[in-house]
Amino acid sequence: MIRISIDAMGGDFGPEVSLEGVAIALLRQPDIQFIIYGQEDVCQPILAKYPKLKDRIVFHHCDVAIRMDEKPSQALRRGRYASSMWRAIEAVKLDEADVAVSAGNTGALMAMSKFCLRTMANVERPAIAGIWPTTRGESIVLDIGATIGADSQQLLDFSLMGGAMARALFEVRRPTVGLLNVGVEEIKGQEEVKEAGRLLREANLDTIDYHGFVEGDDIGRGTVDVVVTEGFTGNIALKAAEGTARQISDFLKAAIKRSLMAKIGYLLAKSAFDILREKMDPRKVNGGVFLGLNGIVIKSHGGTDGEGYAAAIKVGYDMVRNGLLQKIDADLRKYHTLRVPPSDPQDENVNGML
Amino acid sequence: MIRISIDAMGGDFGPEVSLEGVAIALLRQPDIQFIIYGQEDVCQPILAKYPKLKDRIVFHHCDVAIRMDEKPSQALRRGRYASSMWRAIEAVKLDEADVAVSAGNTGALMAMSKFCLRTMANVERPAIAGIWPTTRGESIVLDIGATIGADSQQLLDFSLMGGAMARALFEVRRPTVGLLNVGVEEIKGQEEVKEAGRLLREANLDTIDYHGFVEGDDIGRGTVDVVVTEGFTGNIALKAAEGTARQISDFLKAAIKRSLMAKIGYLLAKSAFDILREKMDPRKVNGGVFLGLNGIVIKSHGGTDGEGYAAAIKVGYDMVRNGLLQKIDADLRKYHTLRVPPSDPQDENVNGML
């Protein structure tokens, strides 16, 4: 059994979508046990629509629901201990759940996750990893928005964590990892990125295969299994790509509507469009994974539907089944053990300065 | 007459493409006078293919051609004064040309342009501005890769320069300008971006309409006329979007090939696909504009064809016709005059510290 806690109140549509997602997920992954946190009066009428859920879920009432526009600090003050978001995360901490899923606002969810679960030993900062559809399949991109900026050591941590996630998700033994950079020679990129590249080359790890620098168009090409960057650039790259996909789809729809011939052509070529839609469906790759905390939290897109929410649940399910947390912990421990002999306190200081 | 100097040797295909681009441009803009710099033995056989060019161009032989993989510093050492790239830029400096066009390597072209033309008064750093196809039409994005990082004052300069370019290109009186940022509340973005936002709000300029922060997906949506960011993020966002467009096109092609029905459908809907291709054609928006130098230099994509090269020439042509340089100069002068009374040397110091 995989135990998943759900913040039913998160997202633009609240329990309407999250509980539908739970229902879909249960049909597909019958070995999930759900613990659901939400406001009783809102959730119960919706749960009544899914009678089959009854025996498979445990429901806990929470007074507080975090709003989508709430600032992280405010959410933390108002929602700690009491909100559905907090309680879903806390279930992971108390080992009542293996993973928590929420479509609530990212800033609040990250603030609460950090506060409740704490950052893992050997990790300076958590990151959010996203799954990006590519020409070759799927890649992992991190950080897509947990923090602004990252130094070379943090980029190295991200590389290790992303590598562990790739092993858990793609069943590849030694995933390739690239550092996102610009293609201009000589001034090639930020100092931190260059330094992280040097550290990764020197570390010569057996858990990941360091590929070198990659550029923005390498992400969609699937040049590497894991693309590492700091949260500002990662977030903007992700949204720029999403925007482009939406834009092309809008252009195509408008162009097809213009003539009867094009409409008929569209119907005949529908199988092709269905494949395209399937490949680029943002719902299928829904689910940002918070990495680097003592527990797994999955952020579902706030505006998704039940199908997208079920995909986010599936990401959490896979992460638990494939021992993501244990993999990250082992990889980081290995790297840091190799790097700093724990018996030498002076080296520890050097480590702290990095 | 608009005078355009051409570095014929730049680009993956050299004069084969650049001279075809010149021939196409001359058919469309008969009021251009070209000054072409290149290696005689390579260029003359190609020029012979376009007999109509003969009276409309002046050709200068140059011994040195800058390679696509040459480091900026090396290119500068080897190619200063002697290379086709240098001489095309120098023609602008000597007022023999109004704008220079090259498909040569970006780093070398920027290094030479800075060295030869020098940065404008009131500008700390040049930027490269790109034209981005959007749902609403076109937007300007800068910096797409001139330098890594930018402080708040530089982001403000970029805003003014991008605004001037939008007025020159889109014929809009007071273009909207947005600062690229991430959507997470509270930790909202880099300090420099927040500070630049404050400066732009306070400046309350009549040449641009400051919109506020925009996110990655706002670029393709066309939320603002001008999107401002530093070169690392701008370059990666641009390439991530280009990669996504290519990826979708690959998916669609593969899907259409799969069934006869889809192929027939494609042929019937061809008009729609042609519109899409036209809208998203990277050649049509080819041409990065170097802003902030005492002269205009246009960077054509290295891998483009004659049609794309002609589009880059057209961008330069439009910039000159619409007085881009004068507009930038006037806007910057106005802003800096308002900000720093030139009579007060103490304020100048404060200015220098910003």
Task: Provide a descriptive summary of the structure in words.
Two copies of one chain form a homodimer. With 354 residues, chain A is α/β, with parallel strands linked by helices. The first copy, chain A, folds into two domains: 1-118 and 293-322, Isopropylmalate Dehydrogenase, CATH 3.40.718.10; 121-284 and 325-354, Isopropylmalate Dehydrogenase (3-Layer(aba) Sandwich). Helices cover 50% and strands 16% of the residues of chain A. The first copy, chain A, has 14 helices and eleven strands. Chain A has an eleven-stranded mixed sheet with strand order 3-2-1-4-11-10-5-6-9-7-8, with helices on both faces. In chain A, a hairpin with a 4-residue loop joins strand 10 and strand 11 (296-299). The radius of gyration of chain A is 21 Å and the shape is globular. Mean pLDDT of chain A is 89; it is low at 341-354. Chains A and B meet through helix 8, helix 9, helix 10 and helix 11 of A and helix 8, helix 9, helix 10 and helix 11 of B.
